[in-house]
Amino acid sequence: MRLIMNCTYTYPTEYKIMKVFWTKNPVKSEEHPDLSEDPEYSQRLQYLGDKQQNCSIRLSHVTHKDSHMYCFRFITDKPDGKWTGYPGVTLTVTDLQVEAPERVTEGHNVRLTCKSSCTLTDRATFIWYRNSQPLTERRDGNNQLLLQSVRREDAGRYSCALHGHSYISPAAQLNLPRTVSVSITGSGEIVEGDSVSLSCSSDSNPPALNFSWFKENQSSAVGSGQSFSALQSGRFYCEAHNQHGSQRSDAVTVTGEAFINTLLYLHIIHLFVNYDDLHLSVHPGTDDPSASSYAALDLKSRSNDLYNTLTVSEIPKTCAFKS
């Protein structure tokens, strides 16, 4: 930020100007230091005036530390010819700050406020920026920016400035919740000795910090992390969390199929190798894991004139065959 302090002065014509300079916070009866010789100002202060009547200066890279009273002083060729323009100019440096709500819901109205500790006139006009780009249609005289029916495109870093001044406030982040989704690796069917892999993704801003997994109709989480291995059938969903809250995904269905003991299956094939066709179909049981499932084994003779069936009533730890 740069500012110019405009200044003019006069002096008796019989005096000759020997030196002109600016000083800060002058105290009577004490020496007045020249700001152009002060290391804190020497690279930032430029005298724009002359030794006749113009005493303007330009100060660049202005910060809070520059809040002082500044006075112009000149020294003539006469022993009594030293004057200081008191009380001078009092400079107050303040920040502009954007206040934004912490949580925003898509489709709602959002109001941002540009605040300053300085007392501003009613004619003060504010300019708003999103991601450092000016929102020319958003110039507002009452230091507020109203975003109606916010969408994801409205998310970003908002800052403000006073029209006619180069200082722009630090940016405030406006975040909108985004989507959380679950994907399944594979068919989504659990087979013996295996599991179904689920992955949770979120495009939240800021990014999700952690993930939790839930089974529908259960209040307690069944897992955590961005990936989860489902060992049983059911409907599962994930929740993504960041510092602004959480959002859950839609649920996906994992199915559990009845399975057949491999050794028993091979034994049955071996017993009935004399048949043309051997058809084996598996039928899942109910959602109750203790309920049995069954499989039908259809055997057809080579001569095609005889139809035989076989019933196996008990298969330990697997399922019952029924024709």
From TrEMBL:
InterPro entries given for it? Ig-like_dom, Ig-like_dom_sf, Ig-like_fold, Ig_CD22, Ig_sub, Ig_sub2, Immunoglobulin_dom
Species of origin: Sinocyclocheilus grahami
* UniProt xrefs under SUPFAM superfamilies: Immunoglobulin (SSF48726)
Give the protein's recorded name: B-cell receptor CD22
UniProt entry keywords in alphabetical sequence: Immunoglobulin domain
Taxonomic path: Eukaryota, Metazoa, Chordata, Craniata, Vertebrata
* The protein's role, per its UniProt record: Most highly expressed siglec (sialic acid-binding immunoglobulin-like lectin) on B-cells that plays a role in various aspects of B-cell biology including differentiation, antigen presentation, and trafficking to bone marrow. Binds to alpha 2,6-linked sialic acid residues of surface molecules such as CD22 itself, CD45 and IgM in a cis configuration. Can also bind to ligands on other cells as an adhesion molecule in a trans configuration.
Report if keyword NADP is assigned.
no
SMART domains referenced in this protein's UniProt entry, alphabetically: IG, IGc2
Q: Cite the Ig-like domain residue spans from the record.
A: 87-175, 177-255
